[in-house]
Amino acid sequence: MLKLNKDKTEFIVFSPKQRVNKTENLCINVGSSYINSAMSVRNLGLILDNTLGMEKQVNYICKSCYYQIINIGLIPKYINDETCRTLVQALIISRLDYGNALSYNKPLSWTNCLQQV
């Protein structure tokens, strides 16, 4: 028998910004557990909020890329240029590329943040 992990289980209702208030604080009953709706969820490394805005995802990507850039910047005397390029491709560019189709037609400020990385 499968057992529900209440601490890790969440659900989300996607709605237009005008109807967000109507979908907040929803609760469903699964067996003997009650699960509250979430404002944002993480699935396959993507952060989705209840209006399908990508602001949290873009902020997360920028933050994690800058963290990796700082870490790579600490070790340049220990690696050659080819290894540095490989690290940048593996740790930074792959993060920028993953899920970027979902950010199509989003505000220019979010795109600029990603471009600066």
Protein model, in words:
The chain is of the alpha+beta class and 117 residues long. The chain is built from four helices and four strands. It folds into two domains: 1-52, no CATH class; 53-117. Helix 2 (55-73) packs antiparallel against helix 3 (81-97) and helix 2 (55-73) runs parallel beside helix 4 (108-116). The termini are far apart. The mean pLDDT is 85.
Spell out the key features of this protein.
117 residues; 2 domains; two-stranded antiparallel ribbon; 4 helices
End-to-end gap: 46 Å
Distinct helical segment count: 4
Averaging pLDDT over every residue, what do you get? 85
User: Could you say which overall geometry the principal axes of the C-alpha atoms support?
Assistant: elongated
Strand portion, in percent?
5-15%
Q: How many separate domains?
A: 2
Provide the structure class.
alpha+beta
**Strand order across the largest sheet:** 1-2
Q: What is the ordering of alpha helices and beta strands? A: HEEEEHHH
Largest sheet: 2 strands, antiparallel
Radius of gyration: 19 Å
